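Quick review question:
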């Protein structure tokens, strides 16, 4: 057997049905869409989720919970992330964005206490946890909430 002798099995390949190519083809005239109705028209068909007038599932299922429209989206920075800055540096929002620690849509930055720090930094953020404040001040740094 050679490469040029290979062929798919009989019936494995089927040619595409070409509709709307004359009455003699068997799929001419209405092109398999039926004579009348919404689906026979161009642009016909129903939107996703439409159940033929039955009460849709997204309205039948019970709703739970609450979405706070006044919620503030805060970017999270850990104390261990601040190890990359030199001792005595001022770390603010612009510095954190430049370092790649804070990205995307946010309404503030919060400093959390995960990890250790061994250098004195001046950190200016929107919110800080009590543990993070203690770790920064124990290392000789300062935290300013803006």
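Suggested answer, residue by residue:
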């Amino acid at each position: 057997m050679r490469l040029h002798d290979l062929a798919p099995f009989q019936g494995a390949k089927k040619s595409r049905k070409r509709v709307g190519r004359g009455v003699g083809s068997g799929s001419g005239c209405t092109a398999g869409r039926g004579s009348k109705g919404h689906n026979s028209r161009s642009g016909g068909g129903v939107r996703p989720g439409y159940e033929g007038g039955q009460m849709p599932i997204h309205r039948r299922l019970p709703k739970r919970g609450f979405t706070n429209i006044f919620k503030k989206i805060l970017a999270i920075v850990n104390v261990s992330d601040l190890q990359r800055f030199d001792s005595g540096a001022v770390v603010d929002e612009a510095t954190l964005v430049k370092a790649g620690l804070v990205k995307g849509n946010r309404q503030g930055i919060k400093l959390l206490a995960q990890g250790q720090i061994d250098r004195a930094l001046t950190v200016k953020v929107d919110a800080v946890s009590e543990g993070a404040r203690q770790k920064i001040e124990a290392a000789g740094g300062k935290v300013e909430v803006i």
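Why it works: Helices lie at 57-60, 93-99, 130-138. The radius of gyration is 33 Å.
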